[in-house]
Amino acid sequence: MDYSKLAGKDLLKIKTLGELKAAGYQSKSIKEELRQNLIHKIKNKENVFEGIWGYEDTVIPDIERAILSRHNINLLGLRGQAKTRIARQMTHLLDEYIPVVEGSELNDDPFAPLTTFSKELIQHKGDHTPITWWHRDDRYTEKLATPDVSVADLIGDVDPIKAATMKLSYNDERVIHYGLVPRSHRSIFVINELPDLQARIQVALFNILQEGDIQIRGFKLRLPLDIQFVFTANPEDYTNRGSIVTPLKDRIESQIITHYPKSIEIGKRITAQEAKLNGKPLDKIHVPVLMKDLIEQIAVEARKSEYVDEKSGVSARLTISAYENLISAAERRIYMNNEENTVVRISDLIGVIPAITGKVELVYEGEQEGAGLVAYTLIGKAIRTLFTDFFPSPELKKKEKANNLYTLPLSWFGEGNTLDLLASQSDKEYKTLLHQVPGLESIVTKQVKALPEREKEFFMEFALHGLAEYSQLSKKMLDTGMQFKDLFSSMFDMGTPGDEDFDEDN
After folding, report:
1. Helix, strand and coil in the chain, % to nearest 5
2. Considering only Cβ atoms within 10 Å of each terminal Cβ, which end of the chain, N or C, has fewer?
3. In 440-499, which ranges are continuous DSSP H helix?
4. How far out from the chain centre does Cα 342 lie?
5. DSSP per-residue letters across 325-348
6. Average of pLDDT values for 289-315?
7. In this structure, are residues 226 and 212 in contact, taking their beta carbons and an 8 Å threshold?
8. Nearest 10 degrees: CA dihedral of 437, 438, 441, 445?
9. Which sign does the torsion angle of CA 314, 315, 318, 320 carry?
10. How far is Cα 42 from Cα 64, in angstroms, rounded to an integer?
11. pTM of the entire predicted model
C-alpha cells in the first residue's frame, strides 16, 4: 500500500498502529513535510500564498527558499504588511492529516513518541495502540508577545495540584504542565512582535531553536521537539519597545524583509479584497476609478509626510478602513434622501478622516498640527498629486493667460460667488450647484477622455478641489462639507482650511 496516495477519508479509517504500519507510513519532520509539499506546488505551478499581492517577486520567493532550506523564519516589516497572514497560510503546505497516539499530551508521532505516556502505551499494546488523526488546520499555534509572557506560558512548569491529585513525586515527569511550545510539537508556532518578549524569555527559546529540547525546573528532560518557528517583528521595535537578543537572532536562520505595495494598482487590489462591504447596497453606489486611486494615494502621501512617523509606517489597514468609510458616506446619503443610487463625491472624503487619524503615528510637529488637520492635509496632497493626470497644471496655465481654460470658473468666484458642497445634499441639488459654475463642465468634457456621463459631476468637483490645492481657489471645511470661494476674498477670513474649532479639537 502506498501511504502517500491515500486520501484523507482513507486515512481516517486507520485506527491502530498495526494498520498504520501496513499502510506504509513513515515519519518525517514538519520542516521536511513543508519542503516536500512546497516542491510539489512549485512543480505544478500552484499559488502557495493566495490573496497576498505585491510580493510575487520579492517576499514570497524568499519564504520559499527558506522553507526549502528547512529554516525557521523571521518576517521583519512595518505594521500592516501581511506578516501574520503569510504565517497562517503556511498551514496549506502541511499534509492534510498526520497520525498521533490517541490521548498523548504532545500529539506524539506513533513511530517516534516523546512522552512517557505514549512510550508505555505502545510498549503495552504494541500494534493495537489506538491512533487518531490531526488535521493541518489544527497544527498552527499563534502567540502575541507581550511583556507579561512568562517562561511557564511558553515552555511549562511543575503543577503542584496535578502532583497532589495524582499522588506523584516531584521527580516524576508527569507533574509537568507543558506550555505552548511543547504542545505545538509537529506544528507551526508563530510569535508575533518578538521584540516585545522580555530578554530572559527570549533566552528560554535558545535550546529549542538550536538543540530542539527544553528544560523545566531542573528536570533532566530531553524532548526533541519538531516545530516550524515563524516570528514577526517591526523594525521600530528594535530601538523603541525592545530588541531581539543577538544569540536568538543568530539562531533564526532566515530573516525576510516585507514592504508596502509598490504601486497604486496593487494597493487597490488589496483594498478591494480586504474591505468588509457585506450587506452594503453596492449596486446602488458607483465608485469612479479615480476615487479608488485617491484612497491609495492618501496612504502614499502619509508614508512620505513630514508629520507622520516614518519608522512606524502606515498600515494597509488605512486604505481598507478609508474605503469602507467612503462607501458608508455614500450609503448614508442614499438613506437620508431616499434615492435609488448615487456616485461617491470628493466631499465624501471628509468621512474617511476618522479612518486616517487612527492609523498614523505622528511626530512632534504632527501632534502640534493635530491629527484631524494632518489627515485633511494628506487628502489635499493626494488630490494635488493626481490632478495633473487629468487636467493641466493651473500654475502653468496661469502664466499663459490667453489660453487659461480655468479663467471662467475663477472669474465667477472672483465676483464674490461661493459654492457650498455638503455631504447630505441630494444628487439633484449637488448637480445643480456644480453646473452653476460657468465653464466648469466644459473643462471636464474636454480634458477627461472617455468620460462616463454619471461621473461628470464627480470630475467637476475634483477640478474645484484641484484648483484649491494649487492655490487658485479658497477651500474651507464646513461641519458637513466644503465651501469654495475666491482666494483673494478669503484672505480677510482669518480661519484655517477648516473652521476655528477644527484645529483646537484635533
Report:
1. 50, 15, 40
2. N
3. 440-447, 456-469, 487-490
4. 30
5. HHHHHHHHHHHHHT-S-EE--GGG
6. 93
7. yes
8. -150
9. positive
10. 9
11. 0.85
Assigned C-alpha cell, 28: 518525517
Q: Which residues of 261-298 are buried (b: 16+ CB within 10 A; e: fewer)?
A: beebebbbbbbeebbeeeeeeeeebbbbebbbbbbbbb
Can you tell me the distance from the alpha carbon of 236 to that of 129, in angstroms, rounded to the nearest whole number? 51
pLDDT digit string (tens) for 449-462? 889 999 999 999 99
Per-residue model confidence as pLDDT tens digits over 102-121: 999 899 999 999 888 899 99
Tens digit of pLDDT for each residue in 225-259? Answer: 899 999 999 886 544 456 888 888 888 999 999 99
Contacts of 126 (CB under 8 A, 6+ apart): 17, 18
d(CA 92, CA 137): 8
Task: Give the residue carrying C-alpha cell 492618501.
Answer: 298
142 forms beta bridges with 190
Of 289, 222, 274, 272, give the one whose Cα is nearest residue 448: 289
CA 33/CA 307 separation, integer angstroms: 47
Half-sphere exposure of 412 (CA within 13 A, CB side): 14
Burial class (CB in 10 A: 0-12, 13-18, 19+), 190: buried
| Beta strand ranges found along 336-385 (DSSP E) | 342-343
Q: Is 368 helix (H, G, I), strand (E, B) or coil?
A: helix
Long-range contacts of 43-51 (CB under 8 A, 24+ apart): 48/89, 48/92, 48/93, 49/86, 49/89, 50/89, 50/92, 51/85, 51/273
Residue pair 11/95 in contact (Cβ under 8 Å)? The answer is no
- Residue 158 is inside which H or E element, if any? strand 156-158
Rounded to the nearest 10 degrees, what angle do helices 456-469 and 440-447 cross at? 100
In this structure, what are the phi and psi dihedrals at residue 82, rounded to the nearest 5 degrees?
65, 25
What gap in Å lies between CA 122 and CA 185, rounded to an integer?
19
Rounded to 5°, angle at Cα 461 from 459 and 466: 90
Q: Distance (Å, rounded) from C-alpha 299 to C-alpha 321?
A: 11
> What pLDDT shows up at residue 313?
86
Per-residue DSSP letters for 178-204?
A: E-HHHHTTTEEEEEESGGGS-HHHHHT
Instruction: Name the burial class of residue 126, with classes exposed (0-12), middle (13-18) and buried (19+) by CB atoms within 10 angstroms of its CB.
Output: exposed
User: What CA–CA distances, in Å, run from 23 to 4, 6, 99, 119, 210?
Assistant: 9, 9, 12, 21, 34
Taking the CA atoms of residue 327, residue 328, residue 332 and residue 333 in that order, the dihedral angle to the nearest 10 degrees is -30
Q: How many CB atoms lie within 10 A of CB 245?
A: 19
Beta bridge pairs of residue 176:
158
Mean pLDDT of the chain: 88
Q: Which H helix or E strand runs over 419?
A: strand 419-422
* Owner of C-alpha cell 516585507: 258
Please tell me whether residue 97 adopts helix, strand or coil conformation: strand
Largest CA distance in the chain: 100
Nearest 5°: phi and psi at 244? -85, 120
Q: Which three cell numbers stand for residue 458?
A: 464627480
User: In terms of residues, how long is the chain?
Assistant: 506
